[in-house]
Model the fold of this input.
Amino acid sequence: MKVDQIAVFLENKSGRLAAITKALSDNNINIRALSVADTADFGILRLIVDDTEKATRVLKEEGFTVGKGVVIAVEVADRPGGLSRVLAVLHEAEINVEYMYAFVEKSGENAVLIFRFDDPDMAITILLNAGIKILTGEEVRSI
Amino acid sequence: MIWNEEFETLPREQLEILQIKRLKDLVERVYYRVKPYREKMDAAGIKPEHIKSLADLQKLPFTTKDFLRDNYPFGLFTLPLDQVVRVHASSGTTGKPTVVGYTKRDIETWAEVMARALACGSVQRGDVVHNAYGYGLFTGGLGAHYGAERLGATVIPISGGQTKRQIMIMQDFGSTVLLSTPSYALNIAETMADMGVDASRLSLRVGIFGAEPWSENMREEVEKKLGLKAIDIYGLSEIIGPGVSMECIEAQHGMHIFEDHFMPEIIDPDTGEVLPMGEKGELVFTTLTKQAFPLIRYRTKDITRLIAEPCVCGRTFVRMEKITGRTDDMLIIRGVNVFPTQVEHVLMGIEGVEPHYLIIVNREGSMDTMEVQVEVSEQLFSDEVKNLEKLSKRIQTEIKDLIGSTCKITLVEPKTIQRSEGKAKRVIDNRNI
Done:
């Protein structure tokens, strides 16, 4: 039910994001989803890739600070209210979202929401009980 | 005006007679009362009776800030605490400050030299002295305060900060003399410009600026913007505080050292050899009259040269030029002494912080800013912004708690701070002082 995500520290200077994507591409690693959190002074790149272990190793070798963590991927229908319903369920259960990002599946019928929770296990329970579909890591990687 | 004509114009021969008498007394006091000094002198094979002339001063071992730190806090006091009426402290090279103590007579001595210093700058009874040096453990505020009172001037003990209020008070109270760091004086000038207050609406006549290095260009700028004569004062808490030496308003060239109390030497910082008069080197002081916390041959790490030529003002004391540098990497930021090792001490106390950091100092307008770059290790890293911001904030707070100055923390990628072979480069100082 949990999806591996890697996070990379980005110093606030040009070319850093490019260096990461180049290292991944040189090693034939495919990015499934990504988001960048930026502040005035630094950024954090979050990635879901097809080979987490390899990507971690490659980026560390390139000298990046890499952290691994788990996120929850939720699939919703790609139409108005898809996200809203999920957030309403979480709000009702007082589950705090640390951050989230989203992308649309190739078919265009569904959207995938990636959530980072403080307490992922509790979140999974709540979401499943509300009948919301959670994707496995394998499913996300094969999208 | 010369405050103490008798001492400040002593012919050299008479001054030297006084100095040797005081030096002998000092060495005896220190040797018999302070064990660490005695051990140091014994190790060098020097006894108090070996000091017969001023030239014998060179036989005595140097005192360094490390020696003060090793005997923290009161280990070098020559008298029990019941004789000590005040303590002050300044930055140490690590977490612990450098502590100094004063007897009642030391406070008197300090007021005397500080009164002389203010008189050097033409301050007198009737002047309204706006004392913006910080009051507290820092020697600046109280040191200048007692001197101004001794002189009979009217003191406004305003301390630092709240600049707009300071300007209002200067206007309303008719301050004629400003005491502050030179950078704070510039800050006042800029704030006045923002408020639309012209210097002509103030009564400032003289500014006595010290506690940080400043250039002749800065002098011109402050003089123009505040409409006053800017004079340089020197001091350090280990020796007594402000009032160790002071420029006279007549020459505005070189600071007269009050040699009946503080004996200067200039040494080669590498060999420790005393250099001939006029050569540039590290300034060393011996406090001839201090009771609670005297120092023998204390290495200030400030670089300057002495000027022996007689001065137009009539004082016979030698002058020292403006400080042109340091033998160590101490920084002075907004009047506060900062050692890179202090920053390191803070960083090492935070689990997961790499021992690689870089301090960058800039001058923005009149304010010095300090940025500390810290490498983000895997242990510190988080995928959540708030955790990294919490980390920056924590480093910032701990540095502020230790050194009293706010700095900006920049997190950088690992191994981006240059590793040097040999002495690591920890500081980039972009200020043009």
